[in-house]
Design brief:
Elements (H helix, E strand, L loop, with lengths): L2 H19 L5 H8 L3 E4 L3 E4 L2 H14 L20 H13 L5 H11 L9 H10 L27 E14 L2 E12 L8 E4 L4 H15 L4 E4 L8 H10 L2 E4 L9 H20 L5 H14 L14 H7 L13 H4 L2 E6 L5 E4 L2 E4 L8 E6 L4 E5 L2 E8 L2 H4 L15 H9 L1
């Protein structure tokens, strides 16, 4: 099991304990709701999960954080557990006759009929085989009618932040008209905007910047509620939320009304801020953001809000500062929001990332390493800790550097060294 799979499993486990961790649900009701439910678990497939197991995950997370949710590494890592090609063909042939059957039930039937030995072939082995040949899926039909939509609002700040992206105005950059995008969060209780900013792309780098600034300025929410856009489904955001103890929840697809407050905020921006730009246009992205932030603090946050009983968003948020949990160490944001990649180090001590060659310490030659990337640097991580930095290869400089002996080099024979002394 590689590191990426271990992290995917840890994210799944975090998703199950998050409602308990953040006090969204009472434990008794939550466990009753999960009782008997079949979960689609990364790597393991369809499984039921015992209440005792979930409690252990919750305890482990509280004691040691996100790393404690990762499965332990196999002691027999590297040993093959595969069965013969003939066995595979037989399993696949049987599966084609029982495509309607859930994989968990199919596995039990294979054991019961004597096709496989439970002690020799695990459920995950069968599940991976069927997935590879696209025989593991089944039709999932929803028997639930559309739920009645009711308005809601939390009575405490930083319980839930709604997140979204909106198309902004076109501005002139280097003589060309560029489209902008506004990425924002809004606090469900106070309607305060923890942070928002315009960018000229919809990439994750913008969301990372907005999220980091929002956490520094307004503290940490218990839940981030976003749609199914690519940047909000990114692994980087999922890992960051899990490590910070934030629940990342998503709306149903094609259901923008579920995030009514952030949609209403964008409408306010369109009706109250954009007309100001038409009267006095801006000439750069920097000036657009400066004008927007000034309007946000002087206008939006200071105006009475009908849904806040005549109070302003600023007044409501300030009245509950004792409810706000600020980050004790904001430097953690420099690591949790880094993009991740896994590479095998070549014999010359280099790895390739985004078509760029990077040099790493020679001790990693031949190993698979975890890389985390920001806008300027690439770091080597192991078990959640930064150990070293990967630097871009300079072919010119390397031509004049004396190389240390490779750890894989064969030492000279003693007789060879004697011969050298006699020369």
């Amino acid at each position: 099991m590689d590191e990426k799979t271990r992290e995917e499993i840890a994210l799944f486990r975090y998703g199950l304990i998050a409602p308990l961790l953040n006090g969204q649900q009472e434990s008794k009701e939550y466990f009753e709701e999960l009782e008997g439910k079949i979960h689609q678990i990364p790597y393991y497939g369809e499984r039921k999960i015992a209440t005792k197991t979930i409690k252990e995950w919750l305890l482990n997370y509280r004691r040691n954080g996100f790393e404690a949710l990762k499965p332990k590494r196999r002691s027999d890592r590297g040993d093959s557990r595969r069965f013969s090609p003939e066995d595979k063909d037989q399993i696949l042939a049987i599966r084609k006759e029982f495509l309607h059957m859930p994989v968990s039930v199919f596995y039990e039937q294979l054991v019961k009929s004597g096709e496989i030995n439970k002690n020799q072939v695990s459920y995950s082995t069968i599940n991976r085989l069927l997935k590879k040949h696209k025989l593991s899926g089944k039709d999932h039909k929803s028997f639930h009618s559309e739920k009645e939509r009711k308005r809601f609002a939390y009575d405490k700040v930083n319980i839930l932040w709604q997140a979204d992206l909106s198309h902004g105005p076109y501005i002139s950059i280097d003589g060309k008209m560029k489209k902008t995008f506004l990425i924002a969060y809004i606090d469900d209780c106070s309607r305060v905007v923890p942070y928002a900013q315009f960018f000229i792309s919809e990439k994750f780098d913008g969301l990372r910047e907005v999220t980091k600034e929002a956490l520094i300025r307004r503290g940490k929410p218990k839940i981030i509620y976003a749609d199914n856009g690519k940047i909000y489904r990114s692994e980087t955001l999922q890992y960051a939320c899990a490590q910070l103890g934030i629940t990342l929840a998503h709306t149903q697809p094609y259901d923008p009304k579920a995030k009514g407050k952030i949609e209403r905020f964008f409408k306010t921006v369109q009706t109250r801020f954009y007309p100001l730009l038409q009267a006095d246009p801006v000439s750069s992205l920097e000036k657009l953001n400066e004008r927007f932030w000034r309007w946000l603090e002087e206008d939006y946050h200071r105006k009475e809000h009908a849904s806040l009983s005549g109070k302003t968003p600023h007044e409501v948020f300030q009245s509950q500062l004792d409810q706000v949990t600020f980050l004790e160490d904001i430097e953690i944001l420099d690591t949790v929001f880094l993009k991740r990649a896994e590479r095998k180090v070549k014999l010359d001590g280099t790895v390739t990332l985004n078509k760029q060659l990077y040099e790493v310490p020679a001790s990693y030659i031949g190993q698979k390493i975890e890389l985390r990337i920001d806008e300027t640097k690439v770091y080597i991580f192991e078990d959640g800790k930064k150990l070293a930095e990967a630097v871009p290869v300079s072919f010119h400089d390397n031509a004049h550097v004396k190389r240390n002996q490779s750890p894989f080099a064969i030492p000279n024979h003693p007789l060879d060294r004697e011969g050298e002394d006699n020369v």
